Amino acid sequence: MSKAWKFEDNLNTDEIIPGRFNITIDPLELAKNVFCEIKPEYSKKVTPGDVIIGGQNFGCGSSREHAPIAIKGSQARCVIAASYARIFFRNCINIGLPILECTEAAAGIQEGDEVDVNLATGEIFNRTTGRQFQARPLPDFVLKIAGAGGIVNYLKEHDIQELMA
Amino acid sequence: MGTLIEEIFSRKAGRPVQAGEILLLDVDYIMSHDNTTPLAIKAFREIGKPIHDKERIVLHLDHAYPAPNILAAENHKKIIEFVKEQELPHFHRQGVCHQVMLEEGYVTPGAVIIGADSHSNTYGAMGAFGAGLGSTEIAVAWVTGKCWFKVPETIRIELAGRTQPGVYAKDVMIHIVGLMGMDGGTYRSVEFGGEYIESLPMHERIIFPNMSTEIGAKCGLIAADEITLSYLQTQTPAQGPFEMIRPVHPRYERVLEIDVSQLTPQVACHPDVDHVKALAEVAGLEIHEVYIGTCTNARYEDLEIVAAMLKGQKVHPLTRVIVTPASDRIYKKAMKNGLIEILMDAGCTVTGTGCGACIGRHGGILAAGERALTTMNRNFIGRMGSPLAEIYLASPATAAATALTGKITDPRELLKSPFSTPQGAAQ
After folding, report:
1. What's the pLDDT score for residue B427?
2. Strands (E) located in chain A
3. For chain A, which residues lie within 8 Å of any Cβ of chain B, measuring from their own Cβ?
4. Domain-embedded: residue A17
5. What confidence tier does A138 reach under pLDDT thresholds 50, 70, 90?
6. Residues 6 or more apart whose Cβ sits within 8 Å of residue A154
7. Which of A165, B204, B336, B377 has its CB 3.0 to 4.6 Å from that of B296, i.e. a possible disulfide?
8. Cβ B91 vs Cβ B59: under 8 Å
9. Average pLDDT over chain A, rounded to whole?
10. 3-state class (DSSP) for residue B45
């Protein structure tokens, strides 16, 4: 069971982690300042397994991987958003931060709601309201990367050509 | 047959491709800088495979260069050691990465270039595919030479007419960002064309693909033409022949037609890039810092406009005015032609090249409660320092007019005066 932390549409990478903190690549150091300006209580109160809820165009802005790394470093279990900015989407898949795309869940889960997520099936259940949601399926090659825990792990075992096989 | 992106990707794939397909393509160049390379090195070490082709790797120091603190210095050290260890031939520290990529001839029509920087879209100005990615994918491309792409749908922006004096490409693009919103081009290729685009010199064209990032686009493209060719041949060491790839019977998801002839100067206002207003609506707002720099608007011609407007005058005594040329080549030309002296005599602080102030690292950081007007492409809260500062985006001419008065000022008011014309700077 996870607690939901809710964010608005068009949440940008500077809001996830301001540029001035990107001087380190240590996930735990980055996690200390994740969302520090828009939700300063997050890094103090987040518990492992909590869930980030975003709106449209989550993670827009910079290409910085520090943003998903900071979220992963905070030990959030996954991000559920209506849609993602494209670089952020790729970065999450590549570094192994699970993401789900579900417009209904993004609207139907509020801050503090208790949420169950099945990452394998994309099923999302809001315990607080009793509502069930289904995330959109991800393409096969994305699932291959996600299944390996990220692109780095995937490439240790596979040739990149196998992604498209 | 297809949109410009379909035509570019088809050549790379060696077969006709269409929007929606997923491709694994060879990339021509893989760009990263001091902010994103350390993470790529970490991923590279973890993958544990050798570099595929060092000729394709281009590294820059520009985001926090010269190092403003010890951590930045350690990042530089790590990158330099990596360059040495892997014997990488393309290592630059003479300006903002995207400008250096253009100047050094890496960007040619039809090239597929990925960069660990969101404004890698800039390369679309030369009819190349340029897109931003994260550091891990940069490391993947270092070892494989490849990257996966979904062929995007295309939004065509057809621009007609000519702008009035005092209105520039930056005003047009800010207007487009306001119309489309910051997610208006998400996952799309945004193709800019029409008689207005065709009439523009390269330094004005660059604004459109550069800021296509601000509407979420995967890439922003302008088809190469004679102007592109002339830029490549006279301004860069790139070797032809160059193929001028154009859309062929394209099917667009959407076409947006805009006539620029009645447009007035525009400002993207705090706190969002799509919070766009006609300058007249925010004229008179007090400005504490004017920053003229970045991959968007710090080219020689931009400095020329600013110098023409500031020549023989003084900037407002209480407004800090900072000018950061986009590259050393631009800086040297501006110095040689007397622009730097004009700017300094007017009270501007001219800094070394790089990205510093645009990402709140150094060279122009804002305090709480301050308001800046800049030629940047992005005004996220906290981007230039304090989260309690405000950032307004505009053209170099608007920046120069604002520098003189210390408040947001329409450049056309000053262009009317007899002592300054944009062409008169160096005479």
Report:
1. 37
2. 2-6, 51-53, 78-81, 99-101, 114-118, 123-126, 131-134
3. 9-10, 12, 14-15, 18-20, 22-25, 37, 56-57, 60-66, 68-69, 83, 85-87, 90-91, 94-95, 139, 141, 150-152, 155-156, 160-161, 163-164
4. yes
5. confident
6. A144, A145, A148, A163
7. B377
8. yes
9. 94
10. helix
Structural tokens at position B403: 């520098």
Q: Does B416 touch chain A (CB under 8 A)?
A: no
What residues does B195 pair with on adjacent strands? none
d(CA B308, CA B419): 9
CATH number given to B267-424 = 3.30.499.10
Q: In chain A, what residues touch B148 (CB-CB under 8 Å)?
A: 141, 163-164
Q: Please report whether residue A156 resides in a domain.
A: no
Whether the predicted interface score ipTM is above 0.95: no
Question: By the 8 A CB rule, do A78 and A53 touch?
Answer: no
CA distance B318 to B405: 10
By residue range, what is the domain housing residue A94? 2-138
Q: Is the pLDDT of residue B424 over 80?
A: no
pLDDT for B423:
46
- Cα B237 from Cα B329, distance rounded (Å): 13
For residue B411, list its beta bridge partners: none
Q: In whole angstroms, give the CA distance from residue A58 to residue A80.
A: 9
Q: Does the pLDDT value for residue B398 go beyond 80?
A: yes
Give the bridge partners for B289, in sequence order. B320, B372
pLDDT at A64: 87
- The percent of residues above 70 in pLDDT, for chain A, comes to 100
Closest by Cα among A83, A81, A90 to A117:
A81
> Tens digit of pLDDT for each residue in A54-81?
999 999 988 889 999 999 999 999 999 9
| Mean per-residue pLDDT of chain B | 95
Q: Where are the domains of chain B?
A: 4-238+251-258, 267-424
Is pLDDT at B415 greater than 80 in this prediction? no
**Number of alpha carbons in the 13 Å side-chain half-sphere of residue B180:** 28
> How many domains are there within chain A?
1
In a domain, A96, yes or no: yes
pLDDT score at B416: 65
Domain presence at residue A164: no
Residue B417 bridge partners (DSSP): none
CATH number at residue A95: 3.20.19.10
Span B334-344, mean pLDDT? 98
Chain A residues inside the 8 Å CB shell of B135: 65
